[in-house]
Design goal:
single chain; about 675 residues; alpha/beta; Rossmann fold; Immunoglobulin-like; 8-stranded mixed β-sheet; 37 strands; about 20% helix
Length: about 675
């Protein structure tokens, strides 16, 4: 029960002030004139003015409220290393018991766990949420049991009480971690990209070694081992072996006594892309399709094109002296013997044998294909003639033989059943019907896959693999009609782009492929196949466990399934004869970037509130009461600020000057003053 004097004026304050001034002037005038009774009249005025001010005595019935101590218990991944879980749990239990044993004290235990994804330890978010649920005036202190590695200090709240950090771990803890810096998402095939690696020791690391082994594995293959220095940046040039995703794993073997080996490995996933596509286009004779091929290839900035057109065959006799011809000599030997391997793709557009390319050169083209090259033949009437390119050493690699028949009638190109599943032709853009072509060369497929058909179902586009290389045959020279928009045209540019990328072996256009797209800790596993059914996919986790999942066909030739991986690291996928690897999680998990307990991150919060930092290995500190603003920590003790908060149950008011008393006093003082003046 507490009481206090309060005022509740009966009249407005301005009127009360005016009356005070008027009474003061009147009493002062009487004093100046030395009138008897001025004092008694002044007392009467004071009583009246006091009554107008409305003095009351207010009493409150209060109930004391307990102090609240917030206890943050770090349960993040870095707190699960070595003996930290048991150490922290034992200290938290003892500290909670001591706090609850204090009079007028409540404890709020707040677990701090890992954030979703790779957010790390979000202790400040948990603290802000707890503070929002409690009255600020009752918070006597905040105690955090943690390794101090907090990752959201940018949202640290203002605290009304001391903040103390009880550090877990041991003074002799040490750890070794592998750091990969500046790893690009993309790199150009054939050109080295430099990665910066660093093997770093922290804490009480042993000083008996200055070099450690480093294992490097590409796409899950057998790793290669190198000896690298400690605590020094290492420049490592890497040349990607293939296009698409390249998964490079760096591993440092675990050392005896280190806190964890979770940060001894790093996964780097780099997509290999081609810088430029080098294309050799050989046109047998001028025709509308030749310019269309040239324009399509030149419009792509990523294509380096070398184009030769045979304008004057050797058998042509027009009487023009050779010395007056302004044509460039065709560098056949240089292109087809010396520099043929510099090209990614060779296109023969309506080319026929005229003695310009001897059989030796064409045989070298066939060897180029077998060694991994790519050849596209756009066939016209020349392919059905006696001088057909098929009747050369190239016949061994071409996928279809001519029947010598040329079909001169309009038709619409159609995708075959197999083509609907093949990535080169599956889902080609179609708005209405494609425009018609007017000529087709009749061929008989000898090998490969027929993706498009023409008149009466005859093969139009045939693809084939020859040892390490690839060959495509387009049995018509009227594809240019699509580019000209004849009868609405068609997707010539997209078809050519896909053909070129398939012939280059780009992973996204492989007809038999298995890959996965990671999103966080989830995998979207995709299998492309020309078969109508595929087997189950076997997933091998980083720890060596295996899981088997069935796949569902989501579109012609494409099967998918999803998998959620609990571990961070390299996953192996196997299905039938296909195998791939993919990494889940960050290259270096945030929780394991720094594992040695440290107060550096939380120091600003602790210093602002004058709290303390103590080691749990020295035992749970004692508890003391300290005044606000005073140092709140010392040798083996931490301080709490009593808040003395209370709750008002009810309020009672009683006037100090009842009306009868005011009238009695005022009239008594006035009468006494009057009598005093009457005697003089």
């Amino acid at each position: 029960m507490t009481g206090s004097l309060m005022f509740d004026p009966i009249v407005p304050l301005w009127l009360l002030a005016a009356l005070v001034a008027l009474c003061t002037v009147a009493v002062s005038f009487a004093l100046w004139r030395r009138l008897n009774g001025w004092g008694w009249r002044g007392l009467a005025a004071f009583v009246v003015l006091a009554a107008l001010a409305g003095p009351v005595w207010q009493t409150e019935n209060r109930a004391a409220l307990s102090d609240i101590v917030l206890m943050l218990v770090d349960q993040s991944a870095s707190q699960r290393l070595a003996d930290r879980p048991s150490q922290t749990e034992a200290a938290a239990a003892e500290l909670q018991a001591r706090l609850e044993a204090r009079a007028n004290t409540e404890v709020r235990r707040i677990p701090v766990r890992d954030a979703s994804g790779d957010g790390g330890t979000e202790m400040m978010a948990a603290l802000s949420e707890a503070l929002a649920q409690e009255p600020q005036g009752r918070i006597a202190g905040v105690v955090a049991l943690s390794d101090g590695q907090v990752h959201d200090m940018q949202v640290a709240p203002e605290l009304p009480a001391p903040f103390h950090l009880l550090l877990s771990g041991q003074s002799d803890d040490w750890d070794r971690r592998l750091i990969v810096r500046n790893a690009p998402a993309f790199a150009i095939l054939g050109e080295p990209v430099t990665l910066t690696l660093r093997v770093e020791d922290s804490g009480a690391a042993p000083q008996n070694a200055d070099r450690v082994p480093l294992d490097i594995s590409v796409d899950g293959e057998e790793p290669q081992r190198f000896m690298v220095p400690i605590d020094r940046d290492i420049e490592l040039p890497v040349t990607l072996p293939h296009g698409g995703r390249n998964v490079i794993q760096f591993t440092v073997p675990p050392a005896e006594g280190e806190l964890t080996d979770r940060n001894n490995a790093a996964l780097v996933q780099i997509n290999g892309v081609r810088d430029r596509l080098r294309v050799l286009l050989v046109s047998g004779e001028p025709h509308p399709g030749g310019r269309t091929w040239r324009n399509l290839l030149k419009s792509d900035a990523s294509v380096d094109l070398v184009h030769f057109t045979i304008l004057r065959p050797p058998e042509k006799q027009d009487g023009v002296p050779v010395s007056e011809l302004s044509l460039i000599a065709f560098p056949t030997r240089e292109l087809f013997l010396e520099k043929i391997d510099d090209f990614d793709l060779i296109i023969f557009d309506r080319y026929q044998r005229r003695g310009i390319l001897p059989s030796l050169y064409l045989d070298n083209v066939a060897q180029y294909v077998r060694g991994g090259g790519a050849v596209l033949v756009a066939a016209g009437p020349d392919y059905a003639s006696a001088d057909s390119i098929y009747r050369s050493p190239l016949a061994d690699v071409l996928p279809a033989s001519p029947t010598a028949r040329v079909v001169e009638e309009a038709f619409r190109a159609e995708i075959s059943d197999l083509g609907a599943r093949h990535p080169v032709t599956a889902g080609l853009p179609m708005e209405g019907e494609w425009g018609r072509w007017l000529r087709q060369i009749e061929v008989t497929p000898d090998a490969g896959d027929v993706l498009m058909t023409g008149t009466e179902g005859r093969p139009l586009l045939v693809l084939n693999r020859v040892e390490e290389g690839r060959v495509a045959l387009l049995a018509s020279d009227h594809a240019w009609l699509w580019a000209r928009g004849f009868e609405g045209g068609g997707p010539q540019l997209e078809l050519l782009r896909r053909l070129a990328h398939w012939m280059m072996g780009e992973p996204e256009l492989e007809e038999e492929a298995l890959w996965a797209e990671p999103t966080g800790q989830s995998l979207r596993i995709i299998r492309r196949s020309l078969s109508e059914e595929v087997g189950e996919v076997i997933i091998t986790t980083p720890s060596g466990d295996t899981e088997t999942l069935s796949m569902k066909e989501v579109s012609p030739g494409q099967f998918e399934t999803r998998y959620d991986g609990a571990e961070i690291g390299l996953y192996r996928l196997n299905q039938d004869d296909k195998e791939t690897v993919v990494g889940l999680g960050p290259a270096a998990p945030r929780e394991f970037e720094q594992t040695i307990a440290s107060a550096e991150v939380l120091a600003p919060l602790q210093e602002t509130t004058r709290g303390g930092v103590l080691l749990l290995e020295d035992g749970v500190p004692g508890l003391r009461n300290v005044r606000a603003g005073r140092p709140a920590a010392g040798r083996n003790w931490i301080g709490l600020t009593p808040r003395e908060a209370y709750e008002t149950l009810d309020v009672a008011r009683a006037p100090l000057l009842p009306t009868w008393l005011v009238l009695l006093l005022a009239s008594g003082f006035i009468l006494t003053g009057w009598l005093r003046e009457g005697r003089t």
